[in-house]
Amino acid sequence: MEKQDQLLMKKQNKNLVLEIIKQQSPISRMEIAKVTGMSPTTITRIVNELHLQGFVRETELVTSGVGRKAVLLDVCGDVLYTIGVELDKSIIKIGIVNYIGEIVSCKSISRDPLEKYEETLGKVTNLMKELIGSHNVPNEKIIGVGVGLPGLIDYQRGIVTVSDQLKWKNVRLAADLQELTGFEVKIDNELKMKIVAENISGKARESKNAVLVGIGSGIGSAIILNGEIYRGESNNAGEIGHTVLDPTGNVCNCGKIGCLATYISEGAILSDSRKVKDITSIEEVFNAYRSGESWAINILERTSTYIALAISNILCLYNPEVIIISGSTIQNFPEIKEAIEKKCDLYIWEPIKEKVKIVYSDLRERGVVLGAALQAQNTLLELE
Ligand SMILES: [Zn+2]
Questions:
Q1: How many CA atoms are closer than 13 Å to the CA of 275, on its beta-carbon side?
Q2: Cα(266)–Cα(249) distance, rounded to whole angstroms?
Q3: Could you tell me if 45 and 109 lie in one domain?
Q4: Which residue from 14, 58, 247, 309 has the fewest beta carbons nearer than 10 Å?
Q5: What region, left, alpha or beta, does residue 189 occupy, with left being phi > 0 and alpha being psi -120 to 50 degrees?
Q6: How far is the CA of 227 from the centre of ligand 1 (A)?
């Protein structure tokens, strides 16, 4: 074997062993040898290296089947950290996440929807410093930052192509934030970050084919196909908000007529409500529904119909094992779940309906921060 190949194989083996300890801890060296098919000598060598690098520790002694004592291994959560950042129209949220995916600290501050790009970056930098300082996380243990935000994101070049919510166009977010903080920065669309969190520790755990739908100020989705994020040609796969459902319908802010977003987004619900009543917030619409006002019932019933239509279309396109519904509309107005489920039952094609799990996200407001940090870990961690 060429030397290059040997080195690559050694690296892959080390990654595999660490991954197994992470997933199945506490676990003995013997067990790891059994699972991987590697020799006990190889496992001992790899575990020693991982121990020296701080990734693995010995936890307890157990008596194995033949009466010998076996030492169990576990991973050390504090060996390294990544930082997750969520940016949205009116909020900046930052969390420090350890190696085993626990948020050790999280804080959010408000963002003025009209504030300048530089101002937001300044706020992010300061809040990050504050969090790191107050939790005494040494800078050298932080391997990088992940940022999730709404919009069309060139994740490879680290550029926000366009974000309507943040009012940004062609900004070099990754490079600019890297310069300010000193950390390597990875950016992506918020839902793509969120599905990473769902895939590692949420409702799509270990699923190879999953879809996450986000419903709130906009509507979008993220897709995992065969265990990988499906991005399409320009990272826009999943942008279902501008699929046209009714060519004679409402005008969308994208300039087309009858886009899905014009029936489901909070802005759309609000502007339709204002045709009937002087409403200032989406909560008022939800409350009007709760007190039985027929206009609010009509509008939100229609919203649930279009959500169910969107879900049934996504299921036909991707045939996922699980579809996770998330977002502020579901969180703040859980009553809509029942209506969505009833209509899903009507619209979803039978052969798909039998197999798919339709669930709601548990990650709530932590999803994007956690996913962004985990994605930074996935892409930036290089075992030596
Ligand atoms: Zn549109």
A1: 9
A2: 17
A3: no
A4: 247
A5: beta
A6: 30
**Is pLDDT of 66 > 80?**
no
Q: Is residue 220 domain-shared with residue 288, that is, in the same domain? A: yes
182 and 280 share one domain: no
Which domain covers residue 216, as residue numbers?
A: 204-362
Query: How many helices, marked H, and strands, marked E, lie in the chain?
Result: 14, 16
Q: Is 189 found in the same domain as 117?
A: yes
Distance 304 CA to ligand 1 centre (A): 19
Ligand 1 centroid–CA 123 distance in Å is 31
Same structural domain, 150 and 13? no
Tell me, rounded to whole angstroms, the distance of Cα 18 from its chain centroid: 23
Tokens of 187: 């950016």
DSSP state for residue 257 in the 8-state scheme? B
Is residue 363 classed as helix, strand or coil in its secondary structure?
coil
Residues 22 and 56 in one domain: yes
CA of 259 to the centre of ligand 1 (A): 5
Query: Do the Cβ atoms of 326 and 311 come closer than 8 Å?
Result: no
Are 137 and 21 found together in one domain?
Answer: no
Cα–ligand 1 centroid distance for 233 (angstroms): 20
Joined tokens for residue 362: 């548990």
Measured in residues, the chain has a length of 384
Q: How far is the CA of 350 from the centre of ligand 1 (A)?
A: 29
Strand, coil or helix: what is 296?
Answer: helix
Q: Percent of the chain having pLDDT more than 70?
A: 98
What tens digit of pLDDT does each residue of 281-326 get? 999 999 999 999 999 999 999 999 999 999 999 999 999 999 999 9
The domain total for the chain is: 3
Instruction: Note the pLDDT tens digit of each residue in 2-24.
Output: 788 888 888 899 999 999 999 89
C-alpha of residue 270 to centroid of ligand 1, in Å = 17
Compute, in angstroms, the gap from residue 205 CA to the centroid of ligand 1. Answer: 32
Confidence band of 253 (pLDDT split at 50, 70, 90): confident
Residue 244 CA, ligand 1 centroid: distance in Å: 8
- 64 and 191 within one domain: no
Mean pLDDT of the chain: 93
How many Å lie between the centroid of ligand 1 and the Cα of residue 180? 35
Whole-number Å distance between alpha carbons of 367 and 320: 20
